[in-house]
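Incident log, support desk, overnight shift.

02:14 A customer reports that sequence design results differ from what the structure should imply. Their input is reproduced verbatim below. On-call engineer (initials T.W.) acknowledged and began investigating.
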């Protein structure tokens, strides 16, 4: 019965996420998020750490355009900008499982030698299936070259307000981990284990393009998806994950 519940809940997610406008007249009128958390929302924060065994320049070739979210699973030409690419104040808009996602750049720095830093706001979103809404005034990605430039460490941190912090944290953490994994998948899906291993492989010229089933992150080990999906797919996947966690806790 619980398996059927997970399937039913995950299917019900499609088309249920939508932009939440009712408590946010400030945002609707000016595009600026309210200061602090509005009534009914509580503050939360999450950080996802992930390292890929690819150079900073290769990583930038994937993430270096604010309009390009292929690494997050959004096909070309599905993201629109209201201004100039990679400029503070520019907002990007895209669809994910029926949600209209709006993210506006507040900080953008892409030096040739790193680290890369991109911070944006996240406009209010609501996911009625899980009775959760959230928004963020800080959703940041940094990419820092390590291992003498042979690898790149991601730090994806978000400070948000949510009606249910626990559920929002689970969703946002999964989305960010899938984003970072997506970069690695597009660059060859190799595993980062240590700087010594990369340097040894590079020296012996035995680097392989073979895929791997496990990844090592700054927070431990996890599985690499057999097939990467993002955008609508990643939102659905994260919500299935939330459903499984909720069912395991006996809450459904």
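02:41 Re-run completed on a clean worker. Output:
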């Amino acid at each position: 019965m619980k398996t059927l519940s997970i399937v039913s809940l995950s299917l019900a997610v499609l088309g249920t996420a939508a932009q939440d406008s009712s408590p946010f007249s400030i945002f609707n009128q000016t595009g600026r998020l309210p200061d602090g958390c509005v009534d009914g929302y509580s503050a939360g924060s999450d950080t996802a750490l992930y390292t890929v065994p690819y150079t900073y320049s290769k990583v930038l070739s994937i993430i270096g355009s604010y309009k390009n979210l292929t690494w997050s699973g959004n096909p070309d030409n599905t993201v629109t900008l209201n201004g100039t690419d990679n400029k503070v104040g520019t907002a990007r808009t895209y669809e994910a499982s029926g949600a209209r996602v709006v993210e506006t750049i507040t900080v953008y720095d892409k030096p040739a030698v790193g680290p890369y830093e991109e911070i944006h706001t996240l406009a209010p979103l609501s996911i009625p299936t899980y009775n959760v809404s959230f928004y963020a005034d800080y959703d940041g990605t940094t990419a820092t070259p390590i291992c003498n430039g042979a690898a790149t460490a991601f730090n994806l941190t978000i400070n948000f307000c949510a009606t249910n912090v626990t559920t929002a944290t689970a969703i946002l953490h999964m989305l960010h981990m899938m984003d970072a994994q997506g970069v690695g998948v597009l660059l060859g899906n190799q595993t980062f284990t240590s700087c010594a291993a990369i340097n040894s492989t590079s020296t012996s010229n035995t680097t392989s393009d073979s895929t791997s089933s496990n990844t090592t992150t700054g927070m431990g080990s996890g599985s690499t998806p057999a097939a990467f999906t993002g955008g609508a797919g990643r939102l659905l996947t994260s919500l299935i994950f939330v459903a499984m966690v909720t069912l395991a806790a006996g809450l459904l």
